[in-house]
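Q: Predict the bound structure with NAP.
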Amino acid sequence: MSAQSFLRGVVTIAPNAFEDVAEQLAANDESNEQTLEKILLSSFSRRLALQSVIPRLAFESSSSGPRLTLANQHKETRMAKVVLITGANKGIGFEVARQLGHSGFTVLLGARDASRGEAAAAKLSAEGSDVRPVIADLDRAPETATSLAGQIQKEFGHLDVLINNAGAFDLTGGDGPASAVSIDAMKRTFATNFFGTVEFTQPFLPLLRAAESARIINVSSGLGSVGLNNDPASPFYSVKPLGYNASKAALNMFTVNLAWELRDTKIKVNSICPGFTATDLNNNTGTQTIEEGAIAIVRFAQQTDDSPTGGFFHKDGTYPW
Ligand SMILES: NC(=O)c1ccc[n+]([C@@H]2O[C@H](COP(=O)([O-])OP(=O)(O)OC[C@H]3O[C@@H](n4cnc5c(N)ncnc54)[C@H](OP(=O)(O)O)[C@@H]3O)[C@@H](O)[C@H]2O)c1
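A: Predicted complex:
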């Protein structure tokens, strides 16, 4: 069989899928091999490009043969990894959602306020990512986490990555040095950064266990390192808001304890410090962009199975506890 008749055969069997080949064959009566090779190459490279650039497009069968269509969302989500990010309506969490969405994750964009979450998710959906707003309110952690875990169970049956990013720094002036810190400010900070995060995580553990391999990322801070707080050479040495620092140290203890408990599973649990990043949390005084702040979190969300667990990392290495 000549190459020309082989191609014509393919086009006859699957006319819709190979429309482009048919058109080019019709326009090229000459059947020399170079022409045929060009037709095939352009057809297949177009398919590859479409598949990698627009992950939502997929080949589907129909009675009239295979055709390129918008993938059925349910089918697609079974293939994509699912990540839940708390506090993702702005700041570092939003940028992490953007980057993981671009790399093909199905992103559950957590926000405590429905309209802020919807607006943020709409921006990322407009960029072509599969991003869905969900309610994740650490002040109502048991209710929101249990209800969300139920929805995820129904829709996906598992969760690949949980990023505990939502966090607070008391900007009222109540947080401060050990001698003067307001106990109320400390309690508010702990309520979000520690108690809320622990309580929010627990209902998702069965879903994370059900994933092929899973990640829990607790977004911590170098300010939560006891070692750096006590090290005169550290840039953090003189930064001493006790409420925030202690809440992140407590979060680090959660990381280590949970990693120990899950040591025989495929769930990796780590604390990640994004670095000093310009966001509302610090009145935009941070020295990094949110893109830089997202680097380590995005990297750990995508790590392979032999990655570490029970560690404290930043984008350029590790921090002491
Ligand atoms: N920026 C830095 O320099 C820096 C450095 C080290 C660590 N971190 C950590 O990075 C994480 C992200 O902070 P960011 O800088 O991106 O701050 P951000 O822009 O202020 O974002 C914080 C996010 O957390 C949410 N949030 C706060 N309290 C919550 C609660 N009780 N329940 C649910 N969501 C809540 C906020 O929601 P609303 O929009 O509704 O308020 C917002 O979405 C935090 O854990 C922070 O401690 C930041």
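A: The CA atoms of residues 6 and 243 lie 73 Å apart.
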